[in-house]
Specification:
The complex is a heterodimer of chains A (338) and B (287).
Chain A (H helix, E strand, L loop, with lengths): L7 H20 L2 H26 L7 H18 L5 H23 L4 H21 L1 H4 L5 E2 L5 E2 L4 E2 L4 H24 L1 H11 L1 H6 L4 H27 L1 E2 L9 H12 L6 H19 L3 H15 L3 H14 L10 H7 L1
Antiparallel strand pairs in A: 1-4, 2-3
Helix pairs in contact in A: 1-7, 2-7, 2-10, 2-11, 2-12, 3-4, 3-5, 3-10, 3-11, 4-10, 7-10, 8-10, 8-15, 11-12, 11-13
Chain B lengths: L2 H30 L6 H18 L4 H27 L4 H23 L15 E4 L2 E4 H23 L1 H11 L1 H6 L4 H27 L5 H16 L4 H21 L4 H15 L10
The chains are: A mainly alpha (338), B mainly alpha (287).
Chain lengths: 338, 287
């Protein structure tokens, strides 16, 4: 039975969210608007990561390399190609992450589980080493700074020097990409990914080439992470080694996704809100931030393995009584049944 | 070309250290199917405990070499008993995440207590003594590392394949349900194996401390190398860890001599080559 996923309530929720976000520049001070932009960027990063982890069942410790390649390529392209438009910088970054994803994915496509996790970490370390050593291009420990180029729309040029304009651009572009990811989970390819996680042998028996599907998923999620990385660089007008570090943004995206919950599509987006706000708050009162990261990891794993989305869904059911369509089971699990 | 023996011996010494670190990692993975991300953090803990025993409590080097593995064994066993055991039922993802979080906590606590800078461990003349070998003068300490690695490797192989304890261990791994029916206390075995893995990493840390200096980044510095060793050697294979440690150790050493700019990439190239030819590693079983 084919389930309708575009219902009136979902569309209205999405539109409401966009409109509400659209009013934020009028309500929020500049500091919080910067934070919100960061949240949106990390939400996309976490959504792409969750496609791999929650939907595909593949734990990667190397998602930071795609984020980092996107971030560095954007900065390098803007610095070395004078007069490059913002679109082209982002496109160059996406192209580079697709190439990186294809090469690494081709090497990894036969591996799974802990093996896959470890190899992605090793490849991430390779990229990190390149970023550290190739100082003439990447700036090494100093990083790269640049000016954000203006947005050329053909008929007009919009200055991107202010955070308000950049916030709107981020909201629209990244919002559309997140929606596309959501659409992806409902395509035949998205279903294949889910079924592969549930029972790969059966998928093979049914004639699916699971290695190719895994490769496509790897490249797709890598490219989406590259977009997030590209916007991250454009937002901060600066890129440094932490953007490609598996213990930096790599650990961050893992924690965001995990805190939000890997069983729902929107969980990681909620996770991004919690994480960025918590990080901004905690880093003002303590410089032992990594200790809290570790503690949150351990406590989450031990006590709330389903993440925030599970907690929210449980509360929702307790107070609103109405049994959810999927009876509180994970959305991802529901997809498998349909 | 008098530097070739020097670089060869340097490679062997690093291989010895790599083996000591990766042996515990591959043992825990092979036995319990848990990839311990906190392994390198425990190695660092071993080095810092050794620093505390030698420099702060004015103990002897051999004392820390005896004591630190015991301390790490206790810590490892406690982690297994009270944290890891609770998450086996959730699956591998949660196990990985738990050890990942523990690695963060240990690294941060170390920085908190001992400070975020390198510490020098003075272990007396054994560090500076040299000995003539192959017509060159070579530091004794690096030779001690090689001997320690050989001894530990031999002892592990003997225990695993020649003793009753080894049979129990292998049985608990192969079919934990059947082993438990036959009267083997499987949870206790797992606790012991995890503790032993931690003890090995602590031992490696004590040895590495004086050589590579004791600093908060030392865990990250060896973690990736140890991971590459067990990927190249094959997961859970002790023999594979020996061969891969030698390969990586020599590659690192001669890489610096022959291709100074490319040296860090060589290891990854080797790993990529092994992955293409035999994805399960040189001595690993097919997945």
């Amino acid at each position: 039975m084919k389930q309708k996923y575009i219902t009136l309530s979902t569309i209205s929720a999405i539109v409401a969210l966009f409109v509400a976000a659209g009013f934020m520049p009028l309500l929020l001070p500049e500091y919080n608007l910067n934070m919100l932009t960061e949240i949106i960027i990390f939400a996309l990063f976490a959504v792409s990561y969750n496609l791999l982890l929650g939907y595909g069942g593949l734990l990667s410790f190397g998602h930071a390399m795609f984020f980092g390649v996107g971030a560095y390529m954007t900065a390098v392209a803007i610095i070395h190609i004078p007069g490059l438009s913002m679109w082209n910088a982002v496109l160059i970054a996406i192209g580079a992450t697709i190439i990186a994803g294809a090469v690494i994915g081709a090497l990894l496509l036969r591996t799974k589980g802990a093996y896959f996790a470890l190899l992605t970490l090793a490849f991430n370390a390779l990229f990190y080493a390149i970023a550290t050593k190739w100082t003439s291009i990447t700036g090494g420990d100093d990083g790269l700074g640049f000016d954000r180029p203006d947005l050329v729309l053909g008929f007009t040029t919009v200055s991107m020097a202010t955070i308000t304009n950049f916030f709107y651009l981020t909201l629209i572009v990244i919002g559309v990409v997140i929606l596309f990811c959501w659409y992806f989970t409902h395509t035949a390819m998205g279903k294949t990914v889910l079924l592969m996680r549930e029972n790969e042998d059966r998928m093979k028996m049914l004639g699916y080439n699971t290695n190719i599907s895994r490769l496509i998923l790897f490249i797709f999620t890598g490219a989406v992470a590259g977009i997030a990385g590209s916007f991250y660089t454009l937002h901060f007008r600066f890129v440094s080694l932490s953007a490609i570090d598996s213990m930096g943004v790599g650990a961050a995206v893992l924690l965001i996704t995990f805190v939000g919950g890997i069983k729902t599509f929107w969980g990681p987006i909620a996770g991004a809100f919690v994480y960025i706000i918590l990080q901004n708050y905690l880093s003002t009162i303590t410089d032992r931030w990594p200790l809290f990261i570790g503690l949150i990891f351990v406590l989450m794993v031990l006590f709330i393995p389903g993440g925030l989305s599970e907690v929210i869904m449980n509360i929702y059911q307790r107070f609103f009584g109405r049994k959810d369509r999927n009876e509180g089971a994970s959305v991802a699990a529901e997809e498998v049944k349909s | 070309m008098s530097e070739i023996p020097v670089f060869f011996l340097h490679g062997l010494a690093y291989a010895g250290l790599l083996f000591l670190v990766s042996a515990g990692l591959t043992l825990v993975f092979g036995m319990m199917n848990v990839l311990n991300f906190a392994h390198a953090a425990m190695y660092m803990l071993g080095a810092y405990f050794s620093y505390a025993i030698i420099m702060q409590l004015s103990g002897q080097f051999w004392m820390s070499l005896m004591l630190c593995p015991v301390l790490l064994f206790i810590i490892g066993a406690l982690i297994e008993r009270f944290l890891l055991r609770r998450v086996y039922k959730f699956g591998h993802l949660q196990e990985l995440l738990l050890t990942f979080g523990l690695a963060f906590i240990i690294a941060e606590l170390v920085k908190w207590y001992w400070g975020n800078y390198p510490l020098a461990v003075n272990i007396g003349t054994i560090l500076t003594d040299t000995v003539p070998i192959f017509g060159i003068i070579y530091p004794v300490y690096r030779i001690v590392i090689m001997i320690a690695a050989v001894l530990v490797g031999t002892a592990m192989a003997l225990i695993l394949y020649k003793t009753r304890l080894g049979i129990i261990l292998r049985a608990a791994v192969n079919d934990s349900g059947m082993a438990s029916i036959l009267g083997v206390n499987v949870p206790l075995v797992f606790m012991g194996v995890f503790g032993f893995g931690a003890a090995l990493s602590g031992f490696a840390g004590v040895i590495a401390g004086p050589l590579l200096s004791t600093y908060p980044g030392m865990a990250d510095a060896i973690l990736i190398d140890a991971f590459v060793v067990i990927v190249v050697g094959g997961f859970g294979s002790l023999g594979g860890a020996v061969i891969a440690s030698l390969l990586i150790g020599e590659l690192q050493s001669f890489g610096v001599l022959l291709f100074p700019k490319l040296s860090m990439a060589l290891m990854y190239l080797l790993m990529a080559a092994v992955l293409i030819i035999k994805p399960s590693g040189l001595f690993g079983e097919e997945q």
